Predict the structure.
Amino acid sequence: MAPRALITGASGLIGRWVLQHWGDTPVEPVPVRHTDVDLLAPGAAADLVERTAPTHVVHLAWSASGRADYRTTDDNERWLDATLELVEAVRASGSTVWLTGTAVDDEDDAADAYARSKARLKATLAPLIEDSSVGWLRPFYVFDEARRRPALVDLATTARESGETLHLRSPHQHHDFVHASDVGRAVVAAVSHDLVGEVPIGSGSLRSVADLVTRLGAPWSADDAQQTPAPTHSGDTADTTRLAAVGWAPTRTEEFFTHG
């Protein structure tokens, strides 16, 4: 049987770019969208693996930045359970699975339900990640100006279109911003080159919130009355050594910040 990669969340922010960059990869992509199957239904994940018999599984599906309540919704707990069910089914079938974390998935006391669920997932699977039995794809601060995500990008784009000034609470916080297109290529590279264990995905450079907003063409000012403390991982960059070794580079990110 030819190798096949089941890709959940194929219509999401990263999933669309994964499919676009899949190209001549010898593994056939099998996209799964939320309209195809409700992975939050108990047993659905295991049934999907049994029915499709993939050799690879890339699990991107989760409640993420496309919905306003993604950080607080109870669906985060349900996604945690569904993902563990999926991992068990994939490993029982002898296939390889890649999952997605976040830049804050190692926090002991995460600030919201989304981060807590991702952190619990990583902690639960830590032995499998550490011995390279599964792939843990760890994108840092993902953005996509065309899809106006995350919320900051949408706010900046709206401000630019309306000619209004965007008031920023943390303009000088620095993050490792990475374009969703580059993340999509990194996912494809990980599958193509069998990069398992932890795979950080970022630009490897720090940019400020103000720099991102400026590149989006929005006028901004610092909201001194609502300054927020820097998050725990502000100032961290992704170690992309493993991805660079297989020829990946954050080209779309660099193009955005260089040319706007």
User: Anything to note?
Assistant: The mean pLDDT is 93. The longest strand covers residues 4-8.
